[in-house]
Amino acid sequence: ANDGNASGLRNPLNGNKKLSTREMLSRVSTNVLRRAIMARGSNIVAAAALSSSSLLTSVQPVQKPQQRMMGTLRDSPAAESSWKQSCYFEMDFTVPEESTVYEAVQKFAAFNIGALVTVDESGKLSGVVSERDYVNKIALLGKNSKDTKIKEISTKSANLVTATPADSVEACMQKMMGKDIRHLPLLDDNGKVIGMLSIKDLVKEMVREKEEAIKVLENFALGKGGHFGGE
User: Other CB atoms closer than 10 Å to residue 169's CB: what's the count?
Assistant: First the structure.
């Protein structure tokens, strides 16, 4: 058996000195191991880089979550919408100021209303007459409604509180509450009377608006149309 000295292998670092087979194998093994470790490290780095690259390409940009949107609650309703639901909408809500109070009372009873717009001979607004006027200025004073003209008890136009179709229901309600009245004549941009509003009409409209708001909130809570993707 060879003891490793007979190979005559020369030291690669020193050509004059011979190395035994064992020493050469040891050095070769050490060198190979070192290179293997270096190669393995390179592979690990490359694998890590590849993995990171794959991860970056596979991960999608984070998108902002879609905002949950409430069903639109409509703006405050205008006086016009209340008027169109009012009993005054399809009736003649005017009465000549030269007519008797009795004629006004007959119209109150026939249409189940509480006030009328009074007009002069030219058909222009001259005031408002109400049930309260009749009670306070005729019945309590013992006067005869058939002998008293409407213009004697009506509220004259100079003292009238009015509204426009574009006014909000809340604004109309504030006008009524501020003056302790229950009816508002509606005037267009030219000052012509086009309608009449009662406090009952405004209350109905406000209740209808609140019911719609409650319905939207209920649907939102139940996931029905309250956000994207809802029913």
Answer: 24
Residue 65 is given by DSSP the state P
Say how far apart CA 104 and CA 114 lie, in whole Å.
Answer: 10
Amino acid found at 140 = L
Of all residues in the chain, the percent with pLDDT exceeding 90 is 40
Gap between the Cα atoms of 100 and 30, Å rounded = 127
CB 92 within 8 A of CB 70: no
Where do we find the tokens 């670092």? 13
Of 125, 113, 105, which Cα lies nearest the Cα of 87?
A: 113
CA–CA distances in Å: residue 58 to residues 49, 64, 65, 99, 112: 14, 18, 20, 87, 74
- Mention every residue, 6+ apart, whose C-beta is less than 8 A from residue 229: none
For residue 2, the model assigns a pLDDT of 44
Task: Give the count of beta carbons closer than 10 Å to the beta carbon of residue 19.
Answer: 20
pLDDT above 60: residue 32: no
Residue 163 forms beta bridges with which residues?
186
Sheet of strand 125-130: strand arrangement: 94-96, 115-119, 125-130, 155-156
How many CB atoms within 10 Å of residue 18?
Answer: 14
pTM of the full predicted structure? 0.59
3-state secondary structure labels for all residues of 17-59: CEECHHHHHHHHHHHHHHHHHHHHHHHHHHHHHHHHHHHHHHC
